[in-house]
Amino acid sequence: MLEVSAAPARSASILENVGKTPLVRLERIPRDLPGIEIYGKAEYFNPGGSVKDRPALNMIRQGERDGLLNPGRTILDATSGNTGIAYAMIGAALGYRIKLCLPANASPERKRILKAYGAEVILTNPGEGSDGAIQACRTIYASDPDRYFYPDQYNNPANWKAHFETTGPEILDQTGGRVTHFVAGLGTSGTFMGVTRRMRRDLPPVRCYSMQPATGFHGLEGLKHMPASIVPGIYDPGAGDGNFWVETEDAHTMVRRLAREEGLLVGISAGANVHAALRLGRELAGRGERAVIVTVLCDSADKYLSEHFWDEE
Fold first, then answer.
1. Angle (nearest 5°) at CA 56 between 53 and 57
2. DSSP element (H, E) containing 25
3. Residue 108: how many CB atoms within 10 A of its CB?
4. pLDDT by residue (tens digit) across 206-254?
5. All domains of the chain, ordered by start, with CATH?
6. Catalytically annotated residues
7. What share of the chain is helix, strand, coil (3-state, %, to 5)?
8. Which of 60-64, 94-98, 125-129, 196-200 shows the lowest per-residue confidence on average (mean pLDDT)?
9. Which of 36, 54, 152, 199 is found 20 to 30 A from 189 (Cα to Cα)?
């Protein structure tokens, strides 16, 4: 019998698996829009479960390169949940302590995941949202700056550069350069800014649209209504081609539709992104245009299963 010896498979650390996520075509939800293709970048395939693995890893590695982060310092930042989970996962893998300021109304699942990774969590005023967490984090850092590495995800260029260097090129490659439109929600704005800048450089005809909650009081965790928020330093309001305002209830409805019509169990911000992408698709189809629209499925639904909107029909 002929024996074939296979080369041993190359092992990879958990952090080497950040990025290179699938691009999934929505088949049923946009089926009544002729000439319109809508795709979601399935970022929940990242090891920490969300799109935030990319910027968190890049900010930590940049901190190490700049000499601002060493084993004696604790990584400190404000988060609405997913970046904190990414920090906690990466910190566990690299041996760093993690301290996070998190709005107290973050989902119970997010809090339990952070605890599982061993992160220290400071809960902040839920009525102040991510802005309250930012302010609390700044106070803690100012009290003992030598103790902490403060990546400051809302103002750190390494945030958007992670998407410029990875997410954008992946979208271009996975669509074979056919992408015509990109849609992404604004939180730190890193995903939108990084991908938009990559498209401007490599495929300028692509139209890029941001998405924001329709009001300052909303249930879209991780997203910012910029007119009523502390605006991230990395955000450039003139970078995109337009913006879609999305109601929380519409995002909830789309999350249920994605689960029941596409078999995609995704989070609330992903639902908001797809809702905006579908609105864009309807506008383009109404003008008889063809389009390849790409948006971001930021995370999975496993952090939101305690939400009551799942019980609605």
1. 80
2. strand 23-25
3. 12
4. 999 999 999 998 889 889 999 999 899 999 999 999 999 999 999 999 9
5. 14-50+160-311 (3.40.50.1100), 53-149 (3.40.50.1100)
6. 52, 269
7. 45, 20, 40
8. 125-129
9. 36
